[in-house]
Each structure stands twice: as C-alpha cells, then as structure tokens.
C-alpha cells in the first residue's frame, strides 16, 4: 500500500545524512587546516627564536673577545712598558732598551694576531707568557723570579688552548701579591703545565702577600680575570667542555699561609680532535 509519508521520511533522512556528512567534512577540514596552521606558526616561532638566540650568542662572543683583547692590551701595562723603554734610553742603557722593545713589540703582535682565534697552540701560549713575564721582570728590576715547567710528555705535541686565559692570573699574582712583599724577600712565581686524567692543567703558584680571603677583589675579581673566567664558561657552553678555574692558599708544615695557587683545567684538545660545536653557535 502506498504511503506518502514514507517518502518524506526517506527524504528527510537523506537530507540529514548529507548535512551531517558535510558538517563532518567541514569539521575535519577546519581541524586539519588549524593543525597545519598551528604547526607552521610554531615552527616559524621556533626558527625565529633560534635565529635570535644565535645572533645573541654571536654578539656575546664578540663582546667577550673584545673585552679579552682590551684586558691584554691593558693601558697601564702599555704605558709602563713604554715608560721603562724611555727610562733605559735616557740612562744610556741601549742594550736593555732594545731587548725590552723587541719583546714588547713581539708580545703586542702576538696579542693582535690571537685576538680573532678561539684556539692557539700550547707553544704559542707559552711563548706569550714568557714574553710577558720577562717584560715584567725587566720593568720591576728583578723583584721576582719565575720558573715554567712543562711536562715532558707534552713537548712537541699539537695541543691547543684558548688564548687570553692564563696571563690575567699571572698579572694578578705579580701586581697584587708579589710586588706587595717587603723588598728583602724575593718574589717567586711557579708555572706548571701538564696533563692528567684526559685534561690539561696549568697550575700557578706564588709566594706573594696572601690576602685574608682568596676571593679578595684584588685577587679574583680584576677585570682581566673576570673576562678570562667568562670566556671559559662560554667555551664550556659552546663546545660542551668542562674547563674550570680554582684558587686557594698555600700553607707550610706549620699551617702558615705562604702564598696562593690557581689551577686552570682545560680540555685536552688537538687540531685533530676539536670538540663538537653546539648547534646554536654554528
């Protein structure tokens, strides 16, 4: 028997099915479009942050390099060195003046050449340190003496070290401890360079006037030592290394303070085994 209402029901159900299908389609379309748009927005934001972080890192490194160069080209050291050369010339000590000028010009040249380098050879570092110490010895007319001991196993190796790290601590020891001793007591500075447990260490010892605290502002917080410590922290972040600097007092058998030590721990790096650079710094 014919039922007109049956066709209406079927038509209604068909329309509902089509409408529900379209709604589902648009819902899925909007969800997928939104997810894709959100992904690209997140990706762009991440890339922008990465670029900003990289630019910030590069600016920070450039600033540290500039500060390191400024600490090496210390105006007081340069003025005092030129004043010493002038004094030698006026007193007709031309041989001393020539020797001082040769060493001074060589040290300044090495400083400028190394200012744009992250790593230099250990031999270059030792040469620069000895030039600096010899100049200070001449300027202060033998108020202190120094010795430098290199572990035999390191001689002739291709070890690399970051520049501008050690000299600020030598300068600190000379200016603020060794020169504070009474004239009747000879100042002594000892430098030991060796390798231990897959790392390089540079140990500095002096018998200068010990401060009440090894973290005294004149011992640990001069601009040069601050920059050197910051550069090591930066290298640790950049190459995932574990370079450290530690200081303390030296004591005799009667527990009396006799001086100060500083130990600089560096990664054992050669040209063939440079550490991998973190992605943000590439």
Structural class: alpha+beta
The tally of structural domains comes to: 1
The side-by-side strand order for the widest beta sheet comes to 2-4-5-7-6
β-strand amount: 15-25%
Q: Radius of gyration, Cα only, in angstroms? A: 33 Å
Helix fraction bin: 40-55%
Which descriptors apply to this entry?
3-stranded antiparallel β-sheet, single chain, 282 residues, alpha+beta, 5-stranded mixed β-sheet, Heat Shock Protein 90
Report on the architecture of this protein:
The structure is a single chain. The protein has a single domain (49-281), classed as Histidine kinase-like ATPase, C-terminal domain (Heat Shock Protein 90). The strands form two sheets. Strands 2-4-5-7-6 form a five-stranded mixed β-sheet, covered by helices on one side. A three-stranded antiparallel β-sheet has the order 1-3-8. By secondary structure, the protein is α+β, with helices and mostly antiparallel strands. The protein is 55% helix and 18% strand. It is built from seven helices and eight strands, in the order αααβαββαββααβββ.
Quick gist of this model?
With 282 residues, the chain is α+β, with helices and mostly antiparallel strands. The protein has helices at residues 4-72, 75-90, 94-114, 122-139, 167-176, 217-220, 223-239, and strands at residues 120-121, 144-150, 159-161, 187-196, 199-206, 244-251, 257-267, 269-270. The radius of gyration is 33 Å and the shape is elongated.
